[in-house]
């Protein structure tokens, strides 16, 4: 009976690695491509230019649907990465990282929803308004864009920041992954957290936040891609049947 239970736990662990590895790879690729295809806007500083770009874009809504899926897939990858790290301070950090990932993904989904769907309708409504009414018609879009920009701060601080710093430290203490792979994401996560903190205090894009806003997410998604590949390799190896008991989210 005990051997059967251990065999089932081992099989479950392999499936967590397998599904999570695929999720991490797919989420990373979709996220990278989606960010590259995202039209450039002026942000809150020039709401009319931003509204014009949003209204004229034919890919705006489907692109943000894709980015929403990417967030969910990346969260699935983080579940599996956390499951691969168990015991001691490494396992504890992975659990806290998973909690941050849930909060960060929630902020990401809300941000993508506002930016992708609400902004599109408000921008089109502004574009269809008579020229003499546009000064007033832009106000709802301007408010939505300000809220959307404000949400980028917790997104960068929690998801791109705390989540990956904690996961990187967990991987470093666990010692199961390559050293450069462990510390690279810690540095990238710190950059994401700094970007979110500066953006929250300043309230507008700066040279530092724009640079970190490109570098940190890119490194993070590439790290997820590599980790996904390693998880798929790891699921073929013998696994500890008790490892799954320490995965983030268990009670």
Percentage of residues in DSSP E strands: under 5%
| Helix/strand order | HHHHHHH
Structural class: mainly alpha
Let me know the number of strands: 0
What would you report as the Rg, rounded to the nearest angstrom? 20 Å
* First-residue to last-residue Cα separation: 23 Å
Q: Uncertain spans, ≥5 residues at pLDDT below 50?
A: 243-251
Query: Tell me, what's the shape?
Result: elongated
Please tell me the total number of domains.
Answer: 1
Largest sheet: none
In which range does the helix fraction lie? over 70%
The number of distinct helices, counting runs of at least 4 residues, comes to 7
Tell me, rounded to a whole number, the average pLDDT: 85
Keyphrases for this structure?
251 residues, mainly alpha, 7 helices, elongated, disordered C terminus
